[in-house]
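go over whats below:
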Amino acid sequence: MSRRTEELYDITEAEPDDDGLIECPLLPLRDMVMFPHMVTPLFVGREKSLAAITAAQASGKTLLAVTQINPEVEDPGTEDWYAVGVEVAVGRMLRMPDNSTSVLAQGRRRIQVVAITQAEPYYVAKARIIDEPTGRPRETEALMRAVLALFEKCIQLNRSLPEEAYVFAMNIEEPGWLADLVASTINLEIAERQAVLETFEPTARLQRITAGKLVALLPPGAELWLDGGHNPGAGSVIAEAMADLEDRVSRPLILVVGMLTTKDPVGFLRPFAGLAREAIMVPIPGHAGREPEELAEAARAAGLPAEPAPDVATALRMIGARTLEAPPRILICGSLYLAGLVLEESGVLPR
């Protein structure tokens, strides 16, 4: 660990007041989203930002880092940044050759800004700390394995991603931390990263796809979820997670499923009987997948209404044409290869 990084660990987190709020200098960020546990250099040029960092360093306190909605705004106000951000510790400032200033920053806790208490010479804000669930229930263990497998695929396909990121991810035990690491590493737009930051439930962070080309095909208000599970045990775990979501927010669940010829579709799909409204079966291009018609027959044998579709995009359009009592919850599942193709279509993986 470098000396600059070690210094960050000496900075204590802000103490909440009687209302459970912390008060710190606020630092708007351009073109980046900070996550808890993330250590990265920040390049600072604006006088207000420099003043905020100087004040934090002088008092040995943390800052509140929030991302600008529009990075082109030179002097952002309260309407120009996202409310959810991260409490950060910052190290010493270093002057760069281009006259900008660099500081090493470490993300600590998710926060939500609730009030601005000072605007000059720098912003100071009050924020509530967002408590994140801890623990690894059985269904989350399976999701972590699936995410790790997909992350490994991202690393293999994109040489700009460091291999050590996957090694580091393998050793993370907290599901929320794993989701944050993946979101901060792979190719996502700023709004997509911010959506992950604003997803407080770790299991939801592992699963949900919030942006991309495929999402544009969905009916308004629909949710799109992805899981690479493909065996009967995974089917039980995924169905359990979907049932938990249904208990919290009821929506019609529709499956989009593709599976390899070596897998057991009836065993995988049986736990969804009575939970999912229907299943739409798709091929897995470039792999030895079962034909959609064969998968539809297997789904019916498992107790699910089903029909075939030529691809995932068509399946989503079919769902969009349905008349449903509420926006649907769509789960794409059955194969890691299918999950990889969906990530490519969503712009997460390079083609």
